[in-house]
Task: structure prediction
Amino acid sequence: MKNMLVSNSPHVHSPLSTRRLMLDVVIALLPATVVSVLFYGWSELMLLAVSIATCLGVEWLVTRFLLKQKCTLGDLSAVVTGLLLALNVPPTCPWWVMFIGAIFAIGAIKMTFGGIGQNVFNPAIAARVFLLISFPAAMTNWAVPAGFIHSCCADSVSGATLLGILAEGGVKELAGVNYLQTLFFNIGGSAGEISALALLLGFVYLLCRRVIKPWITLSIWGTVALFALIFWLISPAKYPDPLFNLLTGGVLLGSIFMATDYVTSPMSNWGGVVYGVGIGLLTMLIRYFGSYPEGVSFAILFMNALVPLINKVFHQHKFGRA
Amino acid sequence: MKKTFPIGGVHPNDNKISRNCAIEVLPLPQTVYISMAQHLGAPAKPVVAVGDKVKAGQVIAEPGGFISAFVHSSVSGTVKSIAPRKDISGNSMTHVEIAVEGDEWAEGIDLSDTLVTEIPTDRAAVLAKIQQCGVVGLGGATFPAHVKLNPAPGSKAECLILNGAECEPFLTSDNRIMIERSKEIVIGAAIMKMVLGGCPAVIGIEENKPEAIAAMQKAVAELAYEGISVMVLKKKYPQGGEKQLINAVMRRQVKSGGLPISVGAVVQNVATSLAVYEAVQKNKPLVTNTLTVTGDCLPVEKQHNYLFRIGMPLSYIAEYAGGVPEAAAKIVSGGPMMGRAIANMDACTVKGSSSLLYLSEQFTKRKEASACIRCGKCADACPMGLEPFLLNKLAQNGMTEELEARSVQDCISCGCCQFTCPANIPLLDTINLAKGQVLGIIRARAAAAKAAAEAAKAATQK
Amino acid sequence: MNLTILWTVLVITLLGVVLAAVLYLVAQKFKVEEDPRIDEIEKVMPGANCGGCGFAGCRAFADACVKAGNLDSNFCPVGGNETMKKVAAVLGCAAVEQAPKVAVVRCNGTCENRPKINEFDGLKSCRVKAACYSGDTGCSYGCLGCGDCVAVCGNDAIHMDPATGLPVVDEEKCSACGKCAKACPKNIIELRNKGPRGMRLYVSCVNKDKGPAVKKACAAACIGCGICAKTCTKDAITVEANVAYIDFEKCKLCRECEAMCPTGAIHGVNFPKELDKEGIKARIQERNRKAKEAEAAAKAAAEAAAKAAEAEVKPVEKEA
Result:
């Protein structure tokens, strides 16, 4: 008889794996990616390729030569980072800016802390903020490159994001905006923010696959909506309504895909709610009172830093200790 | 809506392949080796000598402490030796070796199939009978049944829960006895109910055993004892865990470190109920039990449910069932979630043996662990509401105080965390170790406190 | 303008003075009186904070020494006699000398000697493995080979030999702190006297099973036959629970036990010459023969004496 295996229980494992989870995130991002490629064309495709290839390359180099560990490319986390980063920059972003951003994301944010599971900040968000501060011109050039399908309303809003228009000219400038448009093709803004519907589709997929829990995302939405509602009720002439705030800018992309990043979000449900409320609040404060028209990235980055504290305070509900 | 426990839990594929295999009786081997440690607590002390002739059902060992149990011979024959022998994990334990000669049973044991439905009323006599027949909990922990059925004065049983959840994948022995011996189980429940003072009894069965549910409902209806009912539970592992089952059935949570009786619950396995029936009504000690021979690499026609006698070598059973399949990479005694891997096939069956589970390499071999991605899935899966990722880290650094503060001692070792971990981290390996350490510290502290209190008492008396 | 600067300087200075005063007062109030000798002893300690002495670190050891006032029960295995002399000088008491020690791995269950009968598939940790079952060979006492001892060693003095699967101690680096001995769940590692020029003899097995079972599991195990104990003229070897143990305080390194051991479980290390088995056996035979002769002679003499005594006594009896 051959030698049998012996180990402690359990003797079976669920089909769950890190790779499968990351693959699910990639699948959930596909609708938004496809939409962005359709609308922004070849240049967007190139940005995606540069970002993902650079992320994979840097991670391989660092694990191979610096950390001298086993290669971790197989878990696909670098692909997720690359994809998210590319969807978080304007479609006109030069390829070399994308390249620098990807190096920063993996090299400086992820691998310096020891690779997957160790980083404090979400690599894609940190890299986006890094690029925004370092290359403000490239990161706020919202011109629309030629896409594969001609957008019927591309001409009307090209040149600035809705939030930018709001910051410059106030609510009266937004008169022509209808929500159907923001839901399907909100041209202008980061590449992944075109279609709210595509992002929501991804959200539903992640929930169905039980990859993420809804609490963080929902609490961000709730806070943003509540904050906007209060200001809108006070002065509808000065502030836009809650739905506008939810559908524009990076709220959807950030709350569904970036704030829910396992590594950099709290582990308990209540911790997640606190974290989400913090992000929502900071986002709105920056939008209404900050010098930037959009604040989701900064808000997530800031709350990332608080996650260890939140994890210390909020714990799982224990059995028999009610 | 079907009930289940609220916190955590996982849904492994239940793989009840052998569910339709009727129970077959195993023929006797030439020799049996009966272990002295077939129950939780102190090992039993042999009361026979080498060369003695014994009959099946005769006492061969007496309890070695308060938490201990009688052990009976499962066969008739001659005692060949009383010596250390290795158990399934390779650890030495005293075994009584008996060479089988015929199949003669001790006097007074009723081996007929006639049902004895009349419930005795003498509580003390029934408890004594259960103890003398060596009945232990057959749900896995093998805790002596008479101790559990005799709650400390001041605590009152409000509900007897019969555990027919059988939430472990693959195992079907409880399923089969619920189908084939349903009436005996119900009578056993009625006896235990009487012993506990007439509290209601609930038989909890998971929904994936419809035949068992139907059979038990029919038996309950036909026998018409008062206050016994069948409750269908949702399928979720570890529903058969004592605290989880109480939570599912009674909507009460046993406090950390507390016993089930603190919320008025007594939980017994359906197999234990059958053993109680045989002990009390038939005077038959616990020397047989049902075991499933199953596995993912065993064709369905080779799967069996066997009625075995305690002390049969596992290799003998495996041989009788058609040999160890070629593809088997691990043999497990018990279910795949909490069972013990068998390191020694020469070991013998004990009272609590429930399966011979053959798992293939692709099914069971652990994958290489990667870094924790802090997804929190282990914490979501933990039925005790613990945070295994944190306990694992603390255990690796030997931080016992912090481990205790984070309730590592509440862990029931169900394996949900490790089962679900996407990074394949062996969480339970380290947590079990830490739990042992912390429980040791807690016990030492309790002992020290007790000693100090006694010393203080002695001082005041002086 | 000038006034602003003046004010700033003044305020800052004042603040500094006040805070300094507060700090001073607080320091005075919460001053902990400590025996200065603790500091002095700590200075002469090796500073490894390894815990080999049984205390949490070097300072805790120093504290214990000062409290005890003598060195009867405290010894720093890392610093050895030299350090203890210095500590004794600080305390003004006599140093208790101890022979330098080294960690010894008492298992020779190499892959050849002790074939595997199953494969461990759990976490690579001896403690986890020991909690799971008796081990992946037929021997339930021997080395589990997962290297817990290697992981705890702070001196990089113990390593797994990939060829044998057993840990090997680097005598030069080993400070005999005893961490590995504590980490080993099977209690295989023992701190033993280093011996003159590193020469020492030990039984490289701790298996307590009976002879036949042990022999089946491992070719190099001690089977508890007791030949070594019979051979030893220094009374240094005891056989308890089927396993022999050499008391290193009594052992005079004659290597007779090593030559006589039928399984090679007794190991001699760092001896300049190779073991001359035949020579030693011949020597023992010769000694036994002589002893027998002497015994026979003594017996004969005793008998003769007894007869003589009988002869002397008998007449007396008759008289009585």
The mean pLDDT of chain C is 88.
